[in-house]
Amino acid sequence: MAITRKPKLINHKEKIDVIIGKGGSISGETKSNCKSYKNSMTLRLPNFLLDQINEILSKKLIPTPRHTWILEAILEKVQREQGKPRV
User: Fold this and answer.
1) What span, in angstroms and rounded, lies between the C-alpha atoms of 30 and 68?
2) In this predicted model, what pLDDT tens digit does every residue of 18-55 receive, in sequence order?
3) Contact 67, 53 (CB under 8 A)
4) Longest Cα pair distance anywhere in the chain, in angstroms?
5) Torsion from C-alpha of 47, 52, 56, 58, nearest 10 degrees
6) φ, ψ for residue 10 (rounded to 5)?
7) Which residues are within 8 A (CB) of 54 and not within 5 positions of it... i.e. 6 or more apart?
8) How far apart are CA 50 and CA 59, in angstroms?
9) What is the DSSP code (8-state) at residue 83?
């Protein structure tokens, strides 16, 4: 019969205190100085317009996601309104 040592008692309170001491961020906290921060929104489009966009995208040789196409369209409109050249 093998003889083993008595297992050490583990102090869970110390481990818990270490984890709590590490801290963290508050839910919903954002870095305002981060340039890649994005907001999300819901965009409601009439069916006929969505159908037209889908038709345009289906004819492209290189597949483009609808989201990307809509972002590009918004960027073009904003640049036109501001009088800036296209990128």
Assistant:
1) 24
2) 777 777 766 655 555 556 668 888 999 999 999 999 99
3) no
4) 88
5) 50
6) -95, 130
7) 66
8) 15
9) T
> Three-state DSSP class for 32?
coil
pLDDT in tens, 56-75: 999 999 999 999 999 999 99
DSSP code at position 62: S
Torsion of CA 21, 26, 30, 34, to 10 degrees: 0
Domain boundaries, the chain: 47-87
> In which residue are the tokens 């918004």 written?
74
What values do phi and psi take at 86, rounded to 5?
-70, 150
Within 10 Å of residue 57's Cβ, how many Cβ atoms? Answer: 14
